[in-house]
From TrEMBL:
Cofactor note: Binds 1 zinc ion per subunit.
GO molecular function, one term: zinc ion binding
Cofactor: Zn(2+)
Catalytic activity field: adenine + H2O + H(+) = hypoxanthine + NH4(+)
Residues annotated as site: Important for catalytic activity: 220
Keywords recorded for this protein, A-Z: Hydrolase, Metal-binding, Nucleotide metabolism, Zinc
Organism: Sphingomonas panacis
Function: Catalyzes the hydrolytic deamination of adenine to hypoxanthine. Plays an important role in the purine salvage pathway and in nitrogen catabolism.
Active-site residues, Swiss-Prot/TrEMBL: 199 (proton donor)
Stated name of the protein: Adenine deaminase
Length: 326
């Protein structure tokens, strides 16, 4: 088989996907019209032209502005349905998707509207494609600890539908430690824990995510490679890293795919996985990310298969379901 077919055919899970980051310009335009929301773009080409980022914050400014077209449960349903159609076509069998409730509740969109719309899209995708999924509720780290606690309280009626809490948005200046108590409260409620760490932030933030937040996975983790003792710790714990090659390229975490450290991560024994992060903004879904590193790094089929296996062993699926996928 050719490489494309091989990659699509690899059974895989996606563990690092912001559902708001799967809002394609076409859907953004359609929802702006449907909801009579004004957006600062005259055309779909105009939107795409705005997607040139010098760093994480450049992207976040545009990503939060784009989310303003999402107003009704039907919008969140349509957003999720479109993502799952793409994921299923890429051979994704299971997805653990992040959502940012504060991006919406701050605009007056109810928590219930967001989560009920997403859950209905997830149920439809399971019926249509057989793809399973769960939700990761991410706290925006540029907002306060109090705001995160209020969000955790709002999620109360849906806690049995949420697998984990996460931590995203502007990393530098907002260390994991800021959310130690919220993460402890989420763990006490039986939720799993993940956090973005080491995307732009220093290795110290990865240490904090481990030692202070007690996370079950690290999102990104690129800068952990700067610290040998930290790498040893991550390897010893079998900690899963949810790596996002095209995101790293578009946010200038790496200058080119050929310079991406994914091969070094595998050689060091790190449990790396391949994910799309915000596919509508970074130029590709999970299959495109596998293809980018296969081409740009020359990873062989065995390495690609290892990455895909790691996506199941690093998932929050029950052990017997994981075993069935391997
Ligand atoms: N929110 C959406 N994508 C993100 C990323 N890559 N890093 C931090 N916050 C995000
Ligand atoms: Zn992310």
């Amino acid at each position: 088989t050719d490489l494309d077919t091989f990659i699509t055919g690899l059974p895989k899970a996606e563990l690092h996907l912001h559902i708001e980051g799967s809002l394609e310009p076409e859907l953004m335009f359609a929802l702006a019209k449907r909801n009579a929301v004004t957006i600062p773009y005259a055309s779909i080409e105009d939107i795409r032209a705005a997607y040139a980022f010098g760093n994480l914050q450049d992207f976040l400014d545009i990503y939060y502005a784009g989310a303003d077209v999402l107003r009704t449960a039907r919008d969140f349903h349509d957003l999720a349905a479109a993502y799952f159609d793409r994921a299923a076509a890429d051979g994704v069998l299971h997805a653990e998707i992040m959502f940012d409730p504060q991006t919406h509740t701050a605009r007056g969109v109810a928590f219930e509207t967001v989560i009920e719309g997403l859950l209905s899209g997830m149920a439809e995708a399971e019926a249509k494609h057989g793809i399973t999924s769960s939700l990761i509720m991410s706290f925006l780290r540029h907002l306060s600890e109090d705001d995160a606690f209020a969000t955790l309280a709002e999620a109360g009626p849906w806690l049995d539908r949420i697998a984990a809490v996460g931590l995203d948005s502007s990393e530098v200046g907002h260390p994991p430690e800021k959310f130690a108590r919220v993460f402890a409260a989420a763990a006490a409620k039986g939720l799993k824990l993940v956090a973005h760490a080491g995307e732009e932030g220093p290795p110290a933030y990865v240490w904090e995510a481990l030692d202070v937040l007690h996370v079950d996975r690290i999102d990104h983790g690129n800068r952990a490679l700067e610290d040998e003792a930290l790498v040893a710790r991550l390897v010893a714990e079998g900690m899963t890293l949810t790596v996002c090659p095209l995101s790293n390229l578009k946010l200038c975490v790496v200058p080119e795919i050929a310079a991406h450290p994914i091969d070094r991560m595998l050689a060091l024994g790190l449990k790396a996985t391949i994910n799309s992060d915000d596919p509508a903004y970074f130029g590709g879904y999970v299959g495109d990310n596998y293809r980018a590193i296969a081409g740009g790094k020359g990873l062989d089929r065995a390495a690609l298969a290892t990455l895909a296996r790691n996506s199941f062993t690093g998932s929050f699926l029950p052990a017997e379901t994981i075993a069935a996928h391997l």
